[in-house]
From TrEMBL:
Domain of life, source organism: Eukaryota
GO MF, any single term: mRNA binding
Pfam families in alphabetical order: 2OG-FeII_Oxy_2 (PF13532)
Species this chain originates from: Thlaspi arvense
Gene3D superfamilies noted in UniProt: Alpha-ketoglutarate-dependent dioxygenase AlkB-like (2.60.120.590)
InterPro entries from the UniProt entry: AlkB-like, AlkB-like_sf, ALKBH9B/ALKBH10B-like, Oxoglu/Fe-dep_dioxygenase_dom
Protein name (Swiss-Prot/TrEMBL): Fe2OG dioxygenase domain-containing protein
Family indicated by similarity: Belongs to the alkB family.
Lineage: Eukaryota, Viridiplantae, Streptophyta, Embryophyta, Tracheophyta
The Fe2OG dioxygenase domain, residue ranges: 202-300
GO BP: mRNA catabolic process
């Protein structure tokens, strides 16, 4: 509410009475301004009260919507988790120590664990880490000779081959590395909650492998400084992984021996346990295009670095309460 007082001064010369009348008008004008200020203050107070009420209503509505969002978000997580595809029951028989053995026992392949937006976020993070590695800002990053891939280690420093005296193959307990990035810990929690990895074997370290076209990894069995199962998540492009108990290196990225070839779809999680982790060797032939993989493992407690402290947010993770549907893989028998 406002009071308007217009002061009109004519062109005639002012006499004494006119001056007093003008003074009175000025006094009246000041009184009106003062009243307007009082009214404005009251109006502001009322408006603030209205705003407070509106803010309270908005806050209540926001809380309600947030509660609904969280509820539907949880529902969505359950729906997505239950739609994860699990392929297992792979069979590939080879003679090992005189006996026919299914060297693929314990192999599982999961798809639809990460959607396209999540994969992009992970890839962007890896590119960021790769740039930090180039600048020397990470403690453990290297590029293998020849056609080997680039690798960045988190959680522990692992030596792939016997080096200088005192550095055997395995976890180097006195070497420091960077901790697991928070995004990688989110990946771990997702895999445990969504029944991809068991809660008894929550990873506490990982290695990021970055392949350029033509890079490869030779046949090997993962070191037993790490518990079973362990897993590898694939990004950017599909490639094949080979399994065989008698795989041998003929030349760089060329391998011989009977083997089973398994395509690794983009965004898939490959879990290795049992025979496929302990009896069969595995390798990645030349990749056709750029590829990223992250291998997550849990260290044997007796092999952990001397400085290692378990990550608090990786403790006590429990799977969501549901049964995961599984689709059997096509059997391949040799």
């Amino acid at each position: 509410m406002r009071f308007d007082c217009a002061i009109v001064i004519g062109p005639e010369p002012m006499d004494k009475d006119s001056f007093f009348r003008l003074s009175e008008l000025y006094d009246l004008s000041h009184q009106v301004d003062s009243l307007n200020r009082q009214v404005d203050v009251n109006d502001i107070a009322l408006e603030n009260d209205d705003l407070n009420e509106e803010e309270e209503l908005c806050r209540e509505a926001f809380d309600t919507n947030l509660e609904k969002h969280n509820f539907f978000n949880e529902q969505n997580k359950y729906i997505r988790a239950m739609n994860v595809k699990r392929n297992r029951d792979y069979v590939y028989l080879e003679r090992v120590n005189g006996d026919m053995v299914n060297i693929l026992g314990g192999l599982e392949l999961y798809t639809q664990v990460f959607n396209a937006a999540e994969q992009k976020k992970i890839i962007d993070k890896v590119c960021e880490l790769q740039e930090k590695a180039r600048k020397g800002e990470l403690k453990r990053a290297f590029t293998a000779k020849g056609k080997g891939r680039s690798a960045i280690q988190f959680g522990c420093c692992f030596n792939y081959r016997t080096g200088k005296p005192g550095n055997p193959v395995g976890i180097l307990r006195h070497e420091t590395v960077d901790p697991l990035p928070s995004l990688f810990k989110m990946i771990i929690r997702r895999m445990v909650k969504w029944h991809v990895l068991p809660p008894t074997c929550v990873p506490d370290c990982c290695v990021v492998n970055i392949y350029d076209e033509g890079d490869c990894i030779p046949p090997h069995v993962d070191n037993h400084d790490f518990l079973r199962p362990f897993c590898t998540v694939s990004f950017l492009s599909e490639c094949n992984i080979l399994f065989g108990s008698n795989l041998k290196v003929e030349e760089t990225c060329v391998y011989s021996g009977d083997s089973y070839s398994l395509p690794l779809p983009v965004g898939s999680v490959l879990v290795l346990n049992g025979n496929v982790a302990n009896v069969a060797k595995h390798c990645v032939p030349e990749v056709p295009t750029k590829r990223i993989s992250i291998t997550f493992r849990k260290m044997d407690e007796s092999k952990r670095p001397v400085w290692f402290t378990p990550e608090p947010d990786l403790q006590g993770i429990q799977p969501l309460p549901y049964e995961l549907n599984s689709s059997a893989a096509s059997d391949h028998v040799s």
